[in-house]
Amino acid sequence: MQMLRVLLVTLLLALAACGGGGQPATSPGNEYGASGGDTPESGDGVDRSRLARELYFYNWSDYIDPAILEQFEAEYGVRVIVDTYDSNEDMLAKIRAGNSGYDIVVPTDYAVQIMIAEGLAAPLDKSLLTNLVHLDPNLLDQYFDKGNVYSIPYMYGITGIAYNTKFFPDGIDSWAAIFEPEQIAEFRGKISMLDDARETPGAALRYIGQSLNSTDPAALERVKEILLAQKPYLAAYNSSDVNRKLASEEYVLAHSWSGSAMQARNGLGDEFSGNPDIAFVIPKEGGMIWMDNLMILKDSPNAYTAHVFMNFLMRPKVSAQNTEYIGYLTPNKDALDLLSDEIKELYQQGFAPDEEMYKRLEWAVRNEGTTAFDDLWTEIKGE
Amino acid sequence: MATLQQQQQGRDRIRLALLLTPGLLWLVLFFALPLVIIFVYSFMTNDALGRVVYQPTLDNYITVFTQSLYINAYWRSIWTSVLTTVICLLIGYPLAVFIARSPQQWRMPLLMLILIPFWTNFLVRIYAWQIILANNGIINGFLELIGVGRLPLLNNEGATLIGLIYGELPFMVLPLYAAIDRFDFTLMEAAADLGANKIQAFLRIMLPMTMPGIVAGSVLVFIPTLGQFVVSELLGGAKVDYLGNLIQRLFLRANPINWPLGSAMAVLMMIVLLVLIMLYFRATTEEER
Amino acid sequence: MIKTAPATTTAARMQTAFSEGRLTWSGLALTVFSILVYLFLYAPIIVLVVFSFTRDEFGVRWTGFTLDWYIRLFNNPRMMGAAWNTLVVATVSTIVSTIIGTLLAMAMERYRFRGRNAMEGLIYLPIVVPEIVMAVALLAFSAIVFDLIKLATGETLRRSLTTVTIGHIAFSISFVVVVVRTSLKNFDRRLEEAAADLGADSWNTFWRITFPLILPGIVGGALLAFTLSLDDFIISLFLSGPGTSLLPVEVYNRVRRAVTPEINAISTLMLILSMALVALSQLLQRRR
Question: Which chains have 3+ CB pairs within 8 A of B?
Answer without folding.
Answer: A, C
